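Notebook entry, structure prediction.
Reason for the run: the old model in the group folder had no record of what sequence produced it. Starting over properly, with the input documented here first.
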Amino acid sequence: MSDQITVSESQNQPKPKSAAAIVALVLGIVGLISSWVPIINNFAFMLAGLGLVFGIVGLVGTLRGKKSGRGLAIASLIVCAIACAIVLATQSAYSNAIDEATKGAVSSSPASGAGEAMATGTTAESDSGASATDASADTGSDADAEKYAIEGEEFVADDYNSTICGIYTNKSGAKQGYVQLSYTLFDADGNQIGTAYANTSNLEDGGTWKFEASTLKGSDEVATYKLAQVTAF
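New structure, fully documented this time:
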């Protein structure tokens, strides 16, 4: 009789919530929130993808009757799937916008010798001069070159990281919703070894942006660098 009571009580005890479903929902929510942000949404896609895996594990556990929270697992799968879809859609939209911007308003690829600087110590100043106008003068669009200026370029590096700092000024006459700078990095033999990026958003006309274009290349790797492209729209 006591054994029957024990078994009955055990059956009536509530099953624990699926931890995998909870983790999946958290990952999905974080991924959904950050899925709209350029660059960061790459990590959002990974979080949402990981959330899908946890969501499937949680759903399988609830279907087998070992855990409760089937609705939570289904909700997490939906949220993660939406986050992934938004990331793909926004990246496509941003890519198209950048492509259009590079064909129109402000898009410059400096000449091969412009913007180059030696990186022989912990700091080095760029030979590109006080303004990025000089760097883009050979691209065939003086009007585009006059829509921004880059001043005070400085190279800072340690054993593990390299950073190109400077001041970007919006001279376009309008607010720039998105700005991206890219620098090409070279070793002592002149071989291209990487690219350093910096980006910002919502820069007002006449506003200045103190940028830091960073890369995971140490001071022993980077010998020279040059401004490769400025994209703003």
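Summary: The longest strand covers residues 192-203.
The old model has been moved to the deprecated folder.
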